[in-house]
Amino acid sequence: METTAATHLPSDYLPILIQFAAALGFVIFAIVVTHLIGPKRHSKVKDAAWECGVESVGNARTPVSYKYFMTAILFVIFDVEVIFLYPWAVNFRGLGMEGFIQMIVFMTMLMLGFYYVIKKGILKWE
């Protein structure tokens, strides 16, 4: 029995390139048009920094606790890791026992990382 390797021609990627070019063209078009037709009136009040409709008070360089940043970084890390569960769940039957074992290893490593974070007390707020 003869097996044939899948060959991909450059023309197979043409739809992706067209979509990328269309998206890039739209972004450039939107930036240029809004810059050209947007209002150009400047004043002290309009150019002042506002946050949620409230005038800014104080210095923007005020120190912030590192715990805030650690929580945000850990959320992003564990959130991205959980994204890998969806394709695995969709292809669960096709992956068979090997895929199941790989996911068990993945989840074990994820839980070890979470245990490390808990053990170090990174999520404790005082």
Automatic annotation (TrEMBL):
Its main location: membrane. Belongs to the complex I subunit 3 family. Its EC number is 7.1.1.-. It is found in: Cell membrane; Membrane. It is a multi-pass membrane protein. It catalyses: a quinone + NADH + 5 H(+)(in) = a quinol + NAD(+) + 4 H(+)(out). This is NADH-quinone oxidoreductase subunit A. GO terms for cellular component: NADH dehydrogenase complex; plasma membrane. The lineage of its organism: Bacteria, Pseudomonadati, Bacteroidota, Cytophagia, Cytophagales. Keywords: Cell membrane, Membrane, NAD, Quinone, Translocase, Transmembrane, Transmembrane helix, Transport. It is an enzyme of class 7 (translocase). One of its GO terms (molecular function) is NADH dehydrogenase (ubiquinone) activity. It comes from the Bacteria. NDH-1 is composed of 14 different subunits. Subunits NuoA, H, J, K, L, M, N constitute the membrane sector of the complex. NDH-1 shuttles electrons from NADH, via FMN and iron-sulfur (Fe-S) centers, to quinones in the respiratory chain. The immediate electron acceptor for the enzyme in this species is believed to be a menaquinone. Couples the redox reaction to proton translocation (for every two electrons transferred, four hydrogen ions are translocated across the cytoplasmic membrane), and thus conserves the redox energy in a proton gradient. The chain crosses the membrane at residues 16-37, 68-88, 100-118. The gene is nuoA_1. The keyword Transmembrane applies.
